[in-house]
Amino acid sequence: MPFIKEIEKYRSLSIVGLEKNTGKTECLNYVLSRLSGSNKQIALTSIGVDGENTDAVTKTHKPEIEVYEGMIFVTSEMHYQKKKLVAEVLDVSTQSTSLGRLVTAKAKSSDKVIISGPADSMAIKDLIAQMNKFDVDITLVDGALSRKSLGSPAVTDAMILATGAALSANIPQLVYKTKYIYDLISIKAVDEEIKDCLLPIQKGVWAIDNEGNLTDLKIESVLLIEKAKDRLFKKGNRIFVNGAITDKFLNFLKVQKQIKDIEIIVRDFTRIFASPETFYAFIKRGGRIKVLQKTKLIAVCINPVSPDGYCLNSDDLKQALEEKLNLPVYNVRELSGH
Amino acid sequence: MKLRTAISQVKGLHYLMESMQLQSSLGKRYLLDTYMMYQANEINQELDLVERTYTIREGKKAGLISKIQTKLMQVRDIKGSLKNIQSNSILDDIELFEIKSFALVSNAILKLQNEFETTLIEIPDLNHVISILDPENNSVPSFYIYDAYSKDLAITRKKIQELKAARKLDPEMDLGAKLDILENKAAEIEAEVRTQVCENIYPYSNDLEKALNQVAHLDVIIAKAILADNMAFTRAQISESTTEYKAMFHPQIKEALALSNKKFQAIDIKLNQSVCFITGANMAGKTVILKTLALCQYLLQFGFFVPAQSAHIALVNRILVSVGDDQSEQNGLSSFASEMVKINEMVEASINKENVLVLVDELARTTNPTEGRAIVNAVAEIFNENNTLSVITTHYSGLNKTCRKLRVKGLDKEFKPGEINKNNINDYMDYALVEDDASWVPHEALRIAEILGINQQIIEKANKNLLAKS
């Protein structure tokens, strides 16, 4: 029973696809089917809308999410009405999403459900915390890694990554891209003390001096770094950036003479939008980067089939990834015997 | 007037609403939809409730109030679902869940209230509604079309489960249309049950509505009592003629001063059914007095305690305020024109002998002093003739002698030059009001300007001008 025992150690787990059609939903269904036998109380939700019948972009078949009797699931009012299974309403949120209020329900029979959830990180965090009320042991989050998404799956304690031919049809390229995300997820977290100070800050660029004092550098965004170059290092080399980290910003830092003393802090790994080349170059020059919220990657799932029908050799891909990542890699299709 | 409207006009009121510990969004809506009250018995009824809650919180059963508050936190506003019941439509599971969870928490509050000597607010017992929605007697706030509603449904659901389980074991198995037929049947029975459940609930729609209102009212009463306690408010007595405050204060300014370790000097003021001038130096708190008077009047007539040590307040039908800090440019009028429009409304109310409270800050200050003084005296005369409860602050001297005058004591303590600056001026200012029959007003503008540290040239030149005149 691979990685299920590992999952049971965490309070929350997100399952994230590196690209559409990398087998995230199948992976989620696999995890759910294995957890259905455990005596832990499971809850399931999603970041934004997910679980549509067919993929809206490529029109390929997309498996729905199977919820098992006894599991708790959170979905929007609209999708709740469409459900086929028998379920008991436990709660209705006061706040509304674009698809109506969020309904928390307990499945009284097993069937497929369309799961949609809150759209932003704070709301997901709150939701996971609220699951305590219903004695939930593990909350699973159907997540997305998208620049368009306000919700970051990094708010969960643990993560499973789904990757596959949809990301790249070339094994070395696929491994390189996946390894990059793996490296981002592995970025070290800051000390708890600093974390508590910085977490509530929702915008801006801040400097942290050696005594731990915070100064707002009055820089709206590092996207405008050109205009604020002179101010950036006024209060020291440790900088907390609330928004996105881009190529431009890392390239700017890379050429500073004190590069070895520079430490950048970001909210979580999803805020790094830089290309792998730039990121690695920054690290190589001695720059350091840390995150406030760190999640633990516990496994990688692969889907060797791409949406246009191209199929990679599953064993080769698995082996190549395992060598690079030092993590268990699974082909969920093979595991669930399809 | 609804409180919602009053809040948008009176800043101090908005601040107090924000400070209130309302536990439910339901309570908040109820409060904002409260109408201003004009009848003494109506106001006293509400104040009685607040006072009783206030007393309970000081006694042995204070814990019960916190327990009720915890329950109030769980109350959801089921206005939408209630509307559907009242129009006899069929409710979905989510709406039925809302009704059930409300009924459960409402009954829990009812039970807690029974522990008081007498009930604070009557809430209808919703036991019947609960038993309709809780066929398995779990008393848990959750809902679905339970198997217990229909044997047929239970059997059909079981068959569906069995079929699905069989298919899981043998994915090749051909179920044909069997599963579909069963699922349709289950859906049909569910619909029948839902209709029946709703029909059983319809007769209780009035009870539900009443409970919803009363629970909201309870939330408001408790929040009012806590506000009164936290801010040291008192219950005002409703008076027939004079309005009199002992140690009246402005809660928002008091709190702001407390933050910088300063004290708000509460003041006493007595108003008759006629006009009253308030004179005094700049920075002597005249505007604050007007704002506090308006705030207190609104608070009382919306059923709150008021910020004072004691208060006797005459009820009015309208409160008319002109405090010149509104955006007159926006409607294209000069500050003088927009003031005159407001004053006109007040004067007309006065001539019509309306029962109003009129508060005017520095009447006609934006025009020349000669005409300004004439306008002030004319307006005051009209208010006086018509016995209009009104307060006018002014810097003009030569005021009508027949009108009552109060003066802020101001900077009457001895102090050395340079001892006072703009940061400590509040400590030297005596904000108390005294009766005054002199025809002159305090001339302290230059002294205060000097304390504020404005350019010395202005002071010197102004003094020279004054000397030249006399």
Architecture overview:
The complex is a heterodimer of chains A (338) and B (470). Chain A has 338 residues and is α/β, with parallel strands linked by helices. Chain A folds into 2 domains: 4-186 and 295-335, Rossmann fold (3-Layer(aba) Sandwich), CATH 3.40.50; 192-291, 3-Layer(aba) Sandwich (Cytidine Deaminase, domain 2). Chain A has 11 helices and 16 strands. In chain A, the strands form 3 sheets. Chain A has a 9-stranded mixed β-sheet with strand order 5-6-4-2-8-1-9-15-16, with helices on both faces. In chain A, strands 11-10-12-13-14 form a 5-stranded mixed β-sheet, with no helix packed on it. In chain A, strands 3-7 form a two-stranded antiparallel sheet. In chain A, helix 5 runs parallel beside helix 10 and helix 8 (247-254) packs parallel to helix 9. The two termini of chain A are 16 Å apart. The mean pLDDT of chain B is 89. In chain B, strand 6 (318-322), helix 14 and strand 7 form a beta-alpha-beta unit. With 470 residues, chain B is of the alpha/beta class. The chains are: A alpha/beta (338), B alpha/beta (470). Chains A and B meet through helix 3, strand 5 and strand 6 of A and helix 7 and helix 9 of B.
